[in-house]
Write a structure and sequence with these properties.
single chain, mainly alpha, 0% strand
Length: 545
């Protein structure tokens, strides 16, 4: 083994430590754990055959419902997000635009249970809309449960996501394009055909696949708003099979069905789009567009107000309700125990995600630097594997394979932190886009001529460039892990809950005031985690003499 390691070292021109940290560790933890999960699923093949799952009408009805609600949510999210992105592009300055953009970014890491609580508080039977309706003399009959509530909750998360990504892509069009538009006096339809639609069309397959996967693998939203067996998805069915029915064969079958469905979507997306990234140069302010007046002003105002009405009321209401109940909640020991468990899991997940992301970026850069472009591409694909392999699939496989150990509390928290870290790797990689682009041949030769290698190169050259993105990545990964409910619901212990488990228990017992206080606590911990890591790892300022 040692001889093979040194042979690999000579071929890749990497030191043994670089081979271990940049290649072997990511490969073992990403494809390796995925293969272990698949092994656990396939070990249940005999159990699948015994229960004749292929002929179970209920399971196939669950699959059809999962597919249908994901397709409906994806279509509505894209159709609503396109005019909103175009409106924000056309209106670069209006009161509250910066706050609206920050709110759109907050929804990316907002815990699903917090959003569900906000939607129930606004649109539920005792919500604000129902109370206003009673005051005005009409009855509010819509209930946020079943298919309607699931789709609406997905719109709350996915419309801001798609609109924000499309806006970033549109803003990176060269300034010369907009100068030409202004000189020619092109109107709205012409601008749409020549500039906006070609950019949007390029990103739609990738965005559609991302949103479809998020809706297809949605767990907390469906578990809370599903409303019964008629609105059950594969994720919830897997959870019920493992937690309540003790049917690992049925869970393995459903996990494989879910994996196959997601793989088909991503393979289709990969054939139609090369990259989902919208990073690149920003070309600055654009000249005044000729299509900003008339009907465009009304339509843009309606789109922006619709986006504000989608995001702000649930957030404001949850925070407003929760602040009054925070003192009473914080006087209980249960909340501090749950907070401690959540922080332990989140810190471990953040470290796993950042270490893996940095190792992947360093390995990709090293491979490309010495001409191993194909191997670098495969390493980059492995970093995004968890987008195609849902968390419930990984959790189910490892649950089946390691059942005697994961039922222990300490072991289960370890596996929850590890799985949360793996699921955060693709998102953390987006926060580290420029790590290998700065290491060109010129600086490398200068470093070698100065004798800066190993720790000295890291201390004086790499760390000053990486500390800011690493701080952002740690805060982002911690926020994602703090808001996760799927993995902890599968592997955690309800008697010793985390913050998200406690919030779900409070929602299940209709304790909305306590749930709102727990949601505010969760949001506060996420914000403090962001500020802590951004402050501790902020880029060093140059000293003035």
């Amino acid at each position: 083994m040692v001889r093979g390691l040194y042979a690999l070292n000579r071929w890749l021109r990497m030191t043994p430590w670089q081979v271990v940290l940049c290649l072997l560790v990511p490969i073992v933890l990403l494809p390796g754990l995925a293969c272990a999960a698949f092994l656990g699923l396939f070990l249940q093949a005999d159990d699948m055959a015994e229960v004749a799952l292929w002929h179970d009408a209920y399971l196939w009805r669950v699959w059809r419902f999962t597919l249908g609600q994901a397709a409906l949510s994806t279509g509505l999210s894209v159709l609503l997000a396109i005019p909103m992105a175009c409106a924000l592009l056309r209106r670069p300055q209006f009161p509250g635009r910066t706050l609206l953009l920050r709110s759109m970014e907050v929804t990316l890491v907002l815990p699903a249970l917090v959003a569900v609580l906000g939607l129930i508080s606004v649109y539920g039977r005792q919500g604000v809309v129902a109370q206003l309706g009673n005051m005005m003399g009409f009855s509010w009959s819509w209930r946020p449960y079943g298919l309607d509530g699931i789709v609406f909750a997905h719109l709350f998360f996915n419309v801001p996501l798609v609109a924000r990504l499309l806006l970033q892509a549109l803003e990176r069009q060269p300034r010369e394009h907009w100068l030409l538009v202004s000189q020619l006096g092109l109107q709205r339809s012409a601008i749409w055909r020549t500039i906006e639609w070609p950019v949007i069309r390029q990103y739609l397959p990738g965005l559609g696949a991302l949103v479809f996967t998020l809706c297809f693998t949605s767990f907390a939203i469906v578990l809370t708003l599903g409303g019964g067996p008629g609105a059950t998805t594969l994720e919830v069915a897997i959870y019920q099979a493992l937690r309540f029915d003790d049917a690992p064969g049925q869970a393995a079958f459903l996990a494989l069905l879910q994996l196959a469905s997601c793989a088909v979507i991503w393979l289709w997306s990969h054939r139609h789009v090369q990259s989902l990234s919208v990073s690149g140069a920003f070309y600055g302010d654009r000249p005044c567009r000729p299509d900003q007046g008339g009907f465009a002003w009304l339509s843009d105002g309606f789109s922006i107000l619709l986006l504000i009405g989608l995001i702000w009321p649930p957030l404001v209401l949850v925070i407003g309700q929760g602040l009054s109940g925070v003192p009473a909640l914080w006087s209980q020991s249960l909340i501090w125990a749950a907070l401690g468990r959540s922080l332990m899991i989140a810190l471990g997940a953040a470290l796993v995600a950042v270490v893996l992301a940095v190792s992947l970026q360093a390995g990709i850069r090293q491979l490309r630097l010495y001409g191993h472009e194909r191997l670098g591409q495969w390493l980059a694909v492995s970093g995004r594997m968890t987008l195609m392999v849902p968390a419930m699939v990984l959790g189910t496989g490892l649950f089946v394979l390691l059942k005697p150990w994961v039922l222990m509390v300490n072991q289960s928290l370890f596996w929850v932190a590890l799985l949360n870290g793996l699921m955060a790797v693709p998102f953390v990689l987006q926060s580290l886009p420029a790590m290998h682009s700065r290491g060109e041949q010129g600086p490398i030769r200068l470093l070698l001529s100065l004798g800066l290698t190993g720790w000295a190169r890291w201390r004086w050259w790499l760390w000053p460039q990486w500390r800011g993105p690493i701080g952002l990545s740690l805060g982002y990964a911690m926020a994602l892990s703090l808001g996760d409910f799927g993995v902890i619901a599968l592997l955690g212990m309800p008697s010793e809950p985390t913050l998200t488990q406690l919030l779900h228990q409070q929602l299940g017992h209709y304790r909305t005031e306590g749930a709102a206080a727990t949601a505010v606590t969760l949001l506060l911990v996420q914000a403090m985690g962001f500020m802590f890591w951004r402050h501790c790892l902020r880029p060093a300022r140059s000293k003035r003499f």
